[in-house]
Amino acid sequence: MAEPVVATYSIVACDLEGGQWGVAVQSKFLAVGSVVPWAEPEVGAIATQAYANPGYGPNGLALLREGLSASEVVERLTSEDEDRDQRQLGVVDGHGGSASWTGPGCNDWAGHRTGEGYAVQGNILVGEETVAALATTFEASAHLPLAQRLIECLAAAQAAGGDRRGQQSASLLVVQKDGGYAGLSDVLVDLRVDDDERPIQELRRIYELHHRLFGLSPREEWLPLEGELRAEVDERLARLGYDSLDAWAGVENLEERVDGEGAIDPVVLDALREASG
User: Fold this and answer.
1) What share of the chain in percent tops pLDDT 90?
2) CA distances from 229 to 42, 218, 232, 234, 236 (A)
3) Tell me, what's the pLDDT at 165?
4) What is the distance between the alpha carbons of residues 212 and 183, in angstroms, rounded to a whole number?
5) What would the pLDDT profile of 218-265 be if each residue is shown by its tens digit?
6) CA–CA gap between residue 73 and residue 61 (Å, rounded)
7) What are phi and psi of 12, to 5 degrees?
């Protein structure tokens, strides 16, 4: 049998209003993001862990695509698996239905909870409080974007006790139809910390960087590029050796936050001021 994805806790969740599905996971296991999380927009999301069966990911998504509910997918996958007693699985379907499985052979403490739009599960944990923190934090953070909610859930679970064997890697996967780079991808966020003493802290840091580069401030917050601000932007660009905002933004990977020369995203303005001194 393959090496277990040990000491793992995860949350599988969706934001139906935002059209997003995602998975966040932390484990005492190298590169947990390469095994546990699976998601497809408008179809669902899956976490496969403990003595993980990676086939649960693509096979489960295929079943969800056929119209099976989360609970039906869990039943189908585990009933056909002779090693189901050592598996752990969480599923959220395209309608927000959720289901989990914790095999009786998973190492203590192991268990799960489900609710509207989410499934949380963990094994080899300090105790039940880790899974409880995942659930209560998700339920209390509906005002946040899904990706940020999932990171907050991981952080709360770790603070509540986390893995009995410690930390090593973490990942965040969020999908949305045409929500990824340049509107040409369904992958909104796909970030991994493969080996770190504080993987959740590092995951938060790179998510904030990701949001800075690829997020977008509401249009009503953009500032008109005219008068003194236009002059300031032109002077700072010239100081850096650029003749247009587009040219500079492309080098700094901020092109997704630039849309013409009539107005500027405040995040871009702050970055330009920081870069030009």
Assistant:
1) 89
2) 42, 19, 5, 9, 11
3) 76
4) 17
5) 999 999 999 999 999 999 999 999 999 999 999 999 998 999 889 999
6) 9
7) -110, 130
Tell me which residue of 46, 272, 273, 35 sits closest to 170, measured CA to CA: 35
Digit-coded pLDDT (tens) for 171-189 = 999 999 999 988 899 999 9
pLDDT at 5 exceeding the cut of 80: no
Beta partners for 37?
47
Tokens of 223: 């500032």
What residue ranges define each of the domains in the chain, with the CATH number in brackets?
A: 8-214 (3.60.20.10), 219-276 (no CATH)
Mapping DSSP onto H, E and C, the string for the chain reads: CCCCECCEEEEEEEECCCCEEEEEEEECCCCHHHCCEEEECCCEEEEEEECCCCCHHHHHHHHHHCCCCHHHHHHHHHHCCCCHHHEEEEEEECCCCEEEEECCCCCCCCEEEEECCEEEEECCECCHHHHHHHHHHHHCCCCCCHHHHHHHHHHHHHHCCCECCCCCEEEEEEEECCCCHHHCCCEEEEEEECCCCCHHHHHHHHHHHHHHHHCCCCHHHCEECCHHHHHHHHHHHHHHCCCCHHHHHHHCCCHHHCCCCCEECHHHHHHHHHHHC
- Report how far residue 150's alpha carbon sits from residue 74's, in angstroms, rounded to the nearest whole number: 22
CA distance 41 to 108: 33
What the block records as the tokens of 33 is 């993001």
| pLDDT range class, residue 2, cuts 50, 70, 90 | low
Is it the case that residue 169 has pLDDT exceeding 80? Answer: yes
Cα–Cα distance, 24 to 8 (Å, whole number): 11
- Nearest Cα to Cα of residue 17 among 135, 120, 172, 143: 143
pTM of the model: 0.91
Phi, psi of 35, deg, nearest 5? -120, -50
